[in-house]
Write a structure and sequence with these properties.
This protein is α+β, with helices and mostly antiparallel strands and 84 residues long. The protein has two helices and two strands. It is 21% helix and 10% strand.
Length: 84
């Protein structure tokens, strides 16, 4: 939701090529539609993951001063909005 809203705001500020990426798998739906003619039911908000686009998330976070720590039982989700 945060990536979607940030991307939408970027569009309104004059960045027509803004592209939002999420960390990890999409979790917009409880169960993703499957089958031969299945289509995403939340296409407007669905975004590809950074990992799927070949981005090293840990390295990218470090470059902007965001240290990611791995702690048992804790998950840190990240997102990215690219601007041009």
């Amino acid at each position: 939701e945060a990536v979607y809203k940030t991307e939408k705001k970027a569009f309104s500020l004059g960045f027509p090529f803004a592209a939002g990426l999420i960390g990890g798998p999409c979790s917009l739906c409880e169960k993703c539609p499957t089958g031969e003619n299945a289509k995403c039911i939340k296409r407007e908000k669905a975004r590809p993951s950074m990992e799927a686009m070949g981005i090293d998330v840990i390295k990218t976070c470090k470059k902007v001063g965001m240290e990611i720590e791995f702690k048992e039982g804790e998950v840190t989700w990240t997102g990215l909005v690219l601007l041009d």
